[in-house]
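Justification of resources, computational component.

The compute hours requested in this renewal are based largely on the per-chain cost of generating structure records like the one below. Each record pairs the submitted sequence with a full structure-token output. That output is archived, and it is also reused by downstream analysis tasks.
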Amino acid sequence: MQIAYRGGARYDVTSGRHTIVTDQPVEDGGGDAGMSPVELFAGSLGSCVAYFVGRYCTRHQIPCEGFTVDVEWSYAEQPHRVGAVGLRVTLPSAVTPEQRETLLKVAHGCTVHQSLAVQPKVEINLVSPNL
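The structure output for this chain reads:
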């Protein structure tokens, strides 16, 4: 994966054949050409939960047409970061209490959620012609 500067506050995130544009809203100095990195972060969590829940539903013949995951987040300070994320999974049909319990376990087991629950090691290196 590579992230490339495209001017202003825009960056293109490329992985294989796929590219996602990130940018900032106009009021924050960007051109609003794509989601902000924080929106992409929240969207990554929400889409991972959706994928895991959707797979479970498909395997257990629970209808997925109309299935959605809504994500909301808030910021925290010192350090500035996403402090809380809330996800609301809406299924188009009723499930049993047992299925509900299992679906919540499946949602919590998504790879992105687990990567937040068990903090990954992040290493940042700087490369510059003069270094």
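Residues 45 and 112 are 6 Å apart (CA to CA). The chain is about 30% helix and 25% strand.
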